[in-house]
Amino acid sequence: MSFRIRMILPLIATFVAAVGYPLFYSFYLSLTSYKITQRWDSHFVGLNQYRDVFANSDYWSAMKVTGLFVVIGVFLELSLGLAIALSLQRQKRFRDFTRSFLLSPMFITPIAVGLMFRFLLNQQLGAIPTILDKVGFSYDFFGSGNALFTMIMIDTWQWTPFMVLLILAGLESLSKQPFEAARVDGAKPFYTFRRITIPMLAPILTVAILIRSLDALKVFEYVYATTRGGPGIETQTIQYFTYQTGIQYYRLGNASAMAYLLLIIVMIIVVVLFKQIEKTRRL
Amino acid sequence: MRKTGIRRSLLAAGVVLIMGIITACGGSSSSSSGSGKISADTAGTLRVLMEGVPDTDIVKGLLADFNKDFPKIDVQIEPIAYDQIRDKLVASFQASKPTYDIAIIDNPWVGDFARAGFLKPLDDLVNSTEGYDYEDFSAPLRSIGEVDGKIYGIPFYNYGLGLIYRTDLFTEARLSEPASLDDLEAAAKKLNSGLRSGIAMQPQRGYKAFEEWGNYLFAAGGSVYGSDGKVNLSTPEAKKALETYIAMFKSSAPKNSLNWAFDEALRAVSSDKAAMMVSYNWMLPTLNKVGGSAGALAGKFKLATMPGGKQVLGSWDWAIPANSKVSDAAWAFISWLTSKAGETARVSAGGAPVRTSVFSDSAVSNTGGGADYYATVAKILGNSEPMCLGSNCDEMINAVGTELNAAIAGKKSVDAALRDATTKANKIQSK
After folding, report:
1. What is the mean pLDDT of residues B335-345?
2. Alpha carbon of A157 to those of A76, A83, A95, A164, A174: distances in Å?
């Protein structure tokens, strides 16, 4: 065995143990009827679990809820993140303080953020409904039609700083010459932003969107801490639904099939996105 | 030759080690005599996982008395949040060396745990324990701990619901205890004012929505299961119950309370923001306690059965894990605490009753909520039913509660929600 292979062996072994085994075992589970409380009855069922997941309307509802959460949430985070990053780039004083202060939400664990908003938005105890009441405005943050938007707002509060961080780093690494040239040619700020800043930032924005989308897809903690999927199934996200099926209802075989199906869908989206990035780069 | 010798030595050492482990395991499991007559010399350490709530503190307070009878049994209670109990128990049930020697089981889990073989049947222990009087436990509570004709759970704490209302407001509005769903709706409307809501409701998706609405279902004369043993909520009674529930939620519940559960409803009632609530019977002594959470309102609350007299029942049950190595010590503790004397001591300290004889015990009726309160609790425990019996109760309750919540939120019609709840519940329970 060559030196190079021997050197990489520990990494391969760790990877197989930490990632490979759980992946393989959960795939195996997805092909069985495994249920924690009926282990003696567990048997190979082929693709039946996948067929059941395809036929499960609640799974697709959860997928739709998650899709809406990701698309709206990431769009808001990107827009706000871009606006804040552009402002911060021009800031002259207290730069370090402002930046560290703005980044603080993303250092809080998501379950703590969920619990914090559960109390902040609580109709009886929360500061926000109390202030709204004082100005004669009433809003049910976890009511029908509002709960998903509340979840998106919580996510936006916590993860916009991440967008700011990436975009600000991107902005500061851009070459100054095109901006100088535009200024000399008399280009207006919005024209410069649309025709120079955005195209030059495009690769960074794409990566930021991809990272945040994949992360937002995992939304679980906010739902667990606040609505538990309600009202009805309005905030039942795919991760919460899979958790309920596998852990709360013991059906690990079924939950594994749900997780694998999600993995396949996400991988297809990622591959398509990367191909799109490659195409843009070649142009 | 040398390599073969080493291999043989290793093999012999392995065999000795395995034999040692087997012997050690055999030694620990010998503490299960299968009889309810437990010697006072029985020794062992009992690790018990319990919810971090006041009733756990009451049990802790009785441990010194238990150790007077069983000085060699060390009971170690680990209080944790409700959300973590079930998963920790399931992990312990499947381990070769259990983490917990006694389990307390919430009512939706009993069927699954018993059929999975996680729990020991307790019939022999119950029958051979002198003076235990198992029949003295309230019959609906007993039914929760019995699965396929065997006893797996001994009632520990009742979660029977009832109507808690403000007597001063009822007197002022010249209202009497509601005798029907229509009376309840009318009372809630009459008590609803700019100062407070008529009733604090708990329509949160899942368990809470089903638990509260179940009382309305019984009050309307309906039931969860039909005569064929299958869930049937597509009935006129269920429709009447859900329509009334929704009408009351719209007309008399606090605004923006669609996500409310137990804590929020209790807070509303104790802070004079609501006149009534459907809640656990043992909340009454807490609300009426002088210097308690209700402040100046203490003493103004009363407990009634639901209109029609029947209500939803839940419970915590004591159980012995099948893999417990200290079954004798575990039964010594369970049978001591749930004996008539143990029940009197626990209920006198504020615990929720599970035995019927305790209601005629003057030592109990002179404490807590008083004789009137215990008379109502006796009625509640005498005529109540759990939301689910059998397998997959957690999933079934959540599915029905989700459909109900969708109807309350206006996302589904009453008929569609009840039809879908029936279909899903039957599919889940047949798995």
Report:
1. 95
2. 10, 14, 20, 12, 27
Sorted by sequence, the CB contacts under 8 Å of residue B228 that are 6+ apart come out as none
Which helix or strand (DSSP H or E) is residue A270 part of? Answer: helix A252-282
Looking at CATH, the fold of the domain delimited by B161-313+386-430 is given as: D-Maltodextrin-Binding Protein; domain 2 (3.40.190)
Q: Looking at the complex, report in whole angstroms how far the Cα of residue B96 sits from the nearest Cα belonging to chain A.
A: 15
End-to-end, the C-alpha distance of chain A in Å comes to 44
**pLDDT digits 0-9 by tens, B83-105:** 899 999 999 999 989 999 999 99
Does A146 touch chain B if contact means CB atoms closer than 8 Å?
no
Q: Is residue A24 part of a domain?
A: no
Residue A242 lies in a domain: yes
- Which regions of chain A are under pLDDT 70? 280-283
- Give the model confidence (pLDDT) of B168-190 as tens digits: 999 999 999 999 999 999 999 99
A35 occurs within a structural domain: no
Instruction: Check residue B10 and give its pLDDT.
Output: 46
Global pTM value: 0.86
Helix (H, G, I), strand (E, B) or coil at B341: helix
Token pair for residue A283? 């142009």
B111 within 8 A of B147, measured Cβ to Cβ: yes
| Residues contacting residue B283 through CB under 8 Å, at least 6 positions apart | B164, B266
- Domain hosting residue A264, numbered range: 46-282
Q: Which architecture characterizes domain B36-152+315-376 according to CATH?
A: 3-Layer(aba) Sandwich (3.40)
Distance between CA atoms of residues B277 and A251, nearest Å? 36
Residue A132 in domain:
yes
**Nearest Cβ partner of A37 from B87, B112, B205?**
B112
CA distance B330 to B375: 32
Evaluate whether B190 touches B198 at the Cβ level (below 8 Å).
yes
Using CB atoms within 10 A of its CB, is residue B204 exposed (0-12), middle (13-18) or buried (19+)? Answer: buried
**CATH number of domain containing A277:** 1.10.3720.10
Q: In Å, how far is A228's CA from the nearest CA of chain B?
A: 7
Residues of A whose CB is below 8 A from B264: 122-124
The tally of domains found in chain A comes to 1
